[in-house]
Amino acid sequence: MITVVVVDDSDRDGLLRTFEALLGLPGELLQHVPDAANRSFTLAETEMLRKLNVEFRGNGLPDELYSKLIRNGAVMHMKNTCSPTAGDVKIRTPGWAVEAAARIAAEMAARIDALGVRVVGDLALLSVVPEQPAPATGEARTAQAADAKDQDRAPDVIEGTRTGTGSSMPQEIATTVSRAGRMA
């Protein structure tokens, strides 16, 4: 029998407890992994990674090195050791996109329900439209600057991303990518 598990984001331990029950495991056996942060990147972090990807791919470096240095290095380091502050600009999904996703999710939930499979959780949770917080002061200007096509027109809203060498990534990362390119 197929079982569909619906995650309830308001119950942090719910998924672990559900799988313990499904697998017949003792309660509280499964625990959260402390170094596996599940947070969204800020605008500055996203822009830095975007620029790093452009530089990395532009140097023709191998995918294995990308996985080691970026995916399992820089990305994991940022997610697990950096804590965004209230002043950091968060990237928010536009309301129209959230509503469209909710409509699609409602259709998917109806299809799942029609299949007659076992459902653990509430399928209606899949199409709930979360409340969007009001934008922080200055957020719209900052987001527009990050989206600017011409980097020279965009103000330096992402502190520490210019190296003065024509590259827009932090100097230590640019040096690492450059060295890796010579070794590849």
Please sum up the structure shown.
With 184 residues, the protein is mainly α. The protein is 48% helix and 3% strand. It has 2 domains: 72 residues, no CATH class; 106 residues, no CATH class.
Quickly count the domains: 2
How many strand elements?
Answer: 2
Gyration radius, rounded: 21 Å
Tertiary shape: extended
Overall pLDDT confidence: 77
Question: What structural class results from the helix and strand content?
Answer: mainly alpha
Proportion of strand residues? under 5%
Low-confidence stretches: 139-169
Key descriptive features of the protein:
single chain; 184 residues; mainly alpha; 2 domains; 6 helices; 48% helix; extended
Report on the architecture of this protein.
- The protein has 184 residues and is mainly alpha-helical.
- The protein has 2 domains: 1-32 and 93-132, no CATH class; 39-92 and 133-184, no CATH class.
- The protein contains 6 helices and 2 strands; from the N terminus they run βααααβαα.
- It has helices at 14-23, 43-58, 63-81, 95-115, 139-147, 171-183, and strands spanning 3-5, 118-120.
- It has a two-stranded parallel sheet.
- The longest helix is centred in the middle third of the chain and has 21 residues, at 95-115.
Give the helix/strand layout.
Layout: E1 3-5, H1 14-23, H2 43-58, H3 63-81, H4 95-115, E2 118-120, H5 139-147, H6 171-183
Parallel strand pairs: 1-2
